Amino acid sequence: MLKLILVGLLAISPVFGKSIILEESNMVVMDQDFNASSTSKVIKDIMELAKDLKSPKDIYLVLSSPGGEIGVGLMMIDTLNSIPNIKVHTVTLFAASMGFITVQGLGDRLITPSGTLMTHKAKGGFQGEFPGQLDSRYNYYLRRLARLDKNVIKRSGGIHTLKSYQDLMENEYWCEGQDCVNQGFADSVINLSCGKSLIKDVIEDIVINFFGMAAKVTVKRSRCPLILGVEQIKAEINGKPYNFKNPLINEHINKGLNHRFHKGLK
User: Fold this and answer.
1) Torsion angle defined by CA atoms of residues 26, 31, 33 and 38, in that order, rounded to the nearest 10 degrees
2) In the 8-state DSSP scheme, what is residue 16?
3) Predicted confidence (pLDDT) at residue 3 exceeds the cutoff of 60
4) Which of 5, 76, 96, 167 could disulfide-link to 118, CB 3.0 to 4.6 Å?
5) Where are the alpha helices (DSSP H) in 64-161?
């Protein structure tokens, strides 16, 4: 009897779930908004990992993103699904909006115990002549969204119908870890860690725009996506060095950094 209980706990408890060790050789991180620049970088990084492969390989796309543009996100999904010899699986730390759609569009849908998924109704706008162009463009987007909804429902494994999924999205739907698995939006809860190749810092420059000014900020952060936070090293505003003494400007720079390295609820 005790043996049966232990087997059951192993089957349902995230603590005893599958463990994955991230390394530079098997991981790419998406920690920005979905836009042309960020999705292109993900594609290039994954293509680099897939270069010269002689046998199939699993790649983990670690998501910590508030979402973004649907069009470029779908192009990224199509491209990643077409690269030979690799299977791209998603690992969710935080995946909202287009991040949620990305999870549903790639391989295994892995999530950490406190990882968060969020889905909602699409937002946007367009211009054109009426009557005529507006009708055509509106119907185009409706067909695209219907296709995305159909895929989410299919991947839920029979848990959701179109109505039940749309009801969930009405006022946004948020779930965490095992709840996401129970709703059919993730496949399994995993234990995640970083290997030796990721225990190091990286330096990079980012640009944050505010009040008509462009702040170029050099930051240091861990290569491991599980180690949160960034350290500012230096900054320039409109090409001039900035000494961090202005509290208002410093607040905006930090807000931009927090958005760029999105790690939780805002």
Assistant:
1) -40
2) G
3) no
4) 96
5) 70-82, 98-105, 133-155
CA dihedral 73, 75, 77, 79 (to 10 degrees): -150
Q: What is the pLDDT of residues 148-179, one digit of tens each?
A: 999 999 999 999 999 999 999 999 999 999 99
The verdict on 218 and 183 lying in the same domain is no
**64 is a domain residue:** yes
pTM score of the predicted model: 0.83
Q: Quote the distance between the C-alpha of residue 109 and its chain's center.
A: 12
Domain count, the chain: 2
41: three-class secondary structure by DSSP: helix
Distance CA 238, CA 76 (A): 32
CB proximity list for 22: less than 8 A, separation 6 or greater: 60, 62, 91, 192, 193, 194, 195, 198, 224, 225, 226
pLDDT of 87 over the 60 cut: yes
Q: Which domain holds residue 139?
A: 2-194
Q: For residue 210, tell me if it sits in a domain.
A: yes
Give yes or no for a cis peptide into 131 (omega within 30° of 0): yes
Q: For residue 190, what are the β-bridge partners?
A: 18
